[in-house]
Amino acid sequence: MTSDNEEMSRVANKKPKKGGKMKLWKKILLSLIGIGVLVLLAGIGLFAYYASSAPNLTEKELNGSFSSKILDSKGNVFKEIGGENREIVEGEQIPQSLKDAVISIEDRRFYKHIGIDPIRIGGAVLANLKGGFASQGGSTLTQQLVKLSVFSTKSSDQTLKRKAQEAWLSLKLERKYSKEQILEFYINKVYLANNVYGVGKASQYYFGKPLNEISLSQAALLAGMPQAPNSYNPYTNPDEALARRNMVLDAMASNEKITAAERDAAKAEPINSGLVDHTEESADNLVIDAYLKEVIEEVSKKTDVDIYTDGVTVHTNLDMDAQQHLYDTLNTENYVKYPDDQIQAGVSMVDVNTGQIKALGGSRKQTAQLGLNRATDLQRSIGSTMKPLADYAPAIENLNYSTYQQVVDAPYTYSDGKTQIKNYDKAYKGQMSIREAITDSRNIPALKTLQTVGLDKSNEFLKKVGINIKQPDGYEGLVESNAIGGDVTPVQLSASYAAFANGGTYYQPYAVNKVVLRNNQEIDLTSKGETAMKDSTAYMMTDMLKDVIKKGTGTAAEIPGLAQAGKTGTTNYDDKIADKFPSTSSPDAWFSGYTTNYSISVWVGYDDPNADNHDLNPNSQKLPARIYKELMTHVSKDIETKDWKKPATVVSSPVLNGSNPAAKPGPNVPSSNIVTELFVKGTAPTNTSNGTGNTPETLPAPTGLTASYNKETDAISISWDSYKSSSKNAKVSYLLNVNGQTYETSDLSYTVQKPTSGTNSISLVASVSGQRSATASTSVQVDSKEAESSSESVIDSTEPPASSEASSEIVPPESSSSETSSSTPPPDTSSGGNGSDSSSTVVPRSTRSKNFSSLGKFLWIFNLK
């Protein structure tokens, strides 16, 4: 018994030991399983955490942004613009060879996986263990699409979080879209160098044909490029592109998508076979650069469309033939000769009947794209091209001026009574019609006309033709110097003159007529014309501007057989630097002209006109007219250009030349003394003159002009006889000029205190009912004296002149009916003699501080032609 019990006890003691060893292995196994489960759960949790913060993936992001097509007036695409230059292709537009090429090189198991591919991932892991991290990717084509749509493709951004989100979005994408849809998204999304996105656009860019017409070799090239677009660019890296294309062909053969014979035949095709030559595109882009810039600005300003991303179709008014000829005219010597390559130009051409901008020239010798557009952004005075807009047209419109309206061209000042205005030739032509005044671009008649119309009425007229003048201090309104200048861009000027051409309707100039969205919705951007003036004003102004080209300052623009009208303009240098240049030089030159079809405005000058050799000589000042002539001749050669038809609101009437007011000629008047002028209906002369006609120059000079100097009083006494007129009711006044200072009076004497030492020149003109007499003149010698000699200075800078004590002064008698200063802001003034119709104003020092220091901010350059 004892032995049996001991045996049983021994057995019993051994069993627990055996059972303990089993529990240990179980624990180890369970621990490993537990750890694995925990790791899996943690991985799932981390994946879920990362996935929860994944960005939304919309169809818009899958498609990407789209380039916009820009069409000319004939519907031809002349530019595509956008951050991603792409074109969507789908369905039958995509050849099977391209699909097979993409799948063979990128994702052979594409049709079998669910968005992520465990087998591909496993293979990538092994490859990375052997070759290092990132030696091979495990991304499916679906994952690549996600990465292109919402994530960065930079290697530094390929984090675990990004990979988790990428996988999650790929799973979602596969549940939402079919495999064919995903493949199409990818084909339309990928980048293929040269700012080309999507294989559809790449087919056009590289081979110049639709995607469904490319060869097997070309399909393989495009399919292989997305992995490294710039490296596989066939233009810049043909060897690398060839190797990559052949790799794709090998993959297609291995994937049994093509035969070995098809592979070899495709490999035999040269890599540059069928490639489009783009070497001249940069030059072509410069041709349309100014116009394209205006198109972009208009779409941005007038719509909510983003032309760079929304893939819209923009219909413009561009006349490509006119644009090309304008570019050639500005950038070659084939049509117009230029003094150097630095001289610049700004040109605008609009359709007078619609306001459509047909061509723009923004510069010469341009190299940078979307550079400064001088046609739309130029801020320089237009000189005398302002006169029809600010002076004469408002006078016809508001005061029923006729083209015969008489005005006296004689020494004159602005309303301050002291600041002189001069003509380009420093001479005066006496009584003349406004037709003669504008034909010869006289400044004094222009100012007098503006003063008669009034600044408010003139400004109102300007706004109706799209011109809003701003003064240097921001004041929106006119000052008297705007009679002969103001800052207006070429495109504004061409549109304003177009209102004369079409009979009085102003169209805001526009380059874009409509924008078509991707859903085919249209945005109309055409300009709706508004009546800016009476048809009588437009016709009469045009009739006078015809003479500017026929026999005035604009003869360089004359085109034989073409009915046209126009106006010249030049500006002058600031007095501070005027001595640096010849007296005939100018910093700016303009010409604005039109027909019944087109209005063209041209500016020529230098960006830095103050630099050495950057002044325009008299020959260069004719460049705007020559450019206008070349462009207008070109665009008018194949179309009918009608002459203007006189409206019923205008009548023609013979007038006795020199009569004032206008009178019909009597039966005995020679034809040489008869002029035919235009009148607003109902205002033509009804009375007949009994005279034979006098030209303004035939009135005799005043008599009895004497002058003497009294040393004790240091004064010159001047007197003359009363002027005898044949007309009993004639109004006589006198214009006295002493050393360039002018005073108008009805008295018969003047005293000049503290005169200048040396010879003092004195001239006298009688004004008889507005008709100017010949000039009487004399001089008086003033001995050298200690008194400070008088000095005169031209005011033409933007800064108010410094004050100075007077040393010479003309003092009228107490009974003199001298003009007092107007409340009108002081005028802009300018130096004379710089060009054929620029102006000059002279101010004695004594007037500077009193009259200009508080209002000198209104002074700046407006000099003219």
UniProtKB/TrEMBL annotation:
The chain crosses the membrane at residues 28-51. This is Peptidoglycan glycosyltransferase. Pfam families: Transgly (PF00912), Transpeptidase (PF00905). InterPro entries: Beta-lactam/transpept-like, Glyco_trans_51, Glycosyltr_51/Transpeptidase, Lysozyme-like_dom_sf, PBP_transglycosylase, PCN-bd_Tpept. One of its GO terms (molecular function) is serine-type D-Ala-D-Ala carboxypeptidase activity. In the C-terminal section; belongs to the transpeptidase family. In the N-terminal section; belongs to the glycosyltransferase 51 family. The keyword Magnesium does not apply. Keywords: Carboxypeptidase, Cell shape, Cell wall biogenesis/degradation, Glycosyltransferase, Hydrolase, Membrane, Multifunctional enzyme, Peptidoglycan synthesis, Protease, Transferase, Transmembrane, Transmembrane helix. One of its GO terms (cellular component) is outer membrane-bounded periplasmic space. It comes from the Bacteria. Residues 684-698, 796-823, 836-846 have a biased composition (Low complexity). The lineage of its organism: Bacteria, Bacillati, Bacillota, Bacilli, Lactobacillales. Residues 684-703, 767-850 are annotated as: Disordered. One of its GO terms (biological process) is cell wall organization. Residues 347-632 form the Penicillin-binding protein transpeptidase domain. It comes from Carnobacterium divergens DSM 20623. It catalyses: Preferential cleavage: (Ac)2-L-Lys-D-Ala-|-D-Ala. Also transpeptidation of peptidyl-alanyl moieties that are N-acyl substituents of D-alanine; [GlcNAc-(1->4)-Mur2Ac(oyl-L-Ala-gamma-D-Glu-L-Lys-D-Ala-D-Ala)](n)-di-trans,octa-cis-undecaprenyl diphosphate + beta-D-GlcNAc-(1->4)-Mur2Ac(oyl-L-Ala-gamma-D-Glu-L-Lys-D-Ala-D-Ala)-di-trans,octa-cis-undecaprenyl diphosphate = [GlcNAc-(1->4)-Mur2Ac(oyl-L-Ala-gamma-D-Glu-L-Lys-D-Ala-D-Ala)](n+1)-di-trans,octa-cis-undecaprenyl diphosphate + di-trans,octa-cis-undecaprenyl diphosphate + H(+). Residues 767-782 have a biased composition (Polar residues). Residues 75-252 form the Glycosyl transferase family domain.
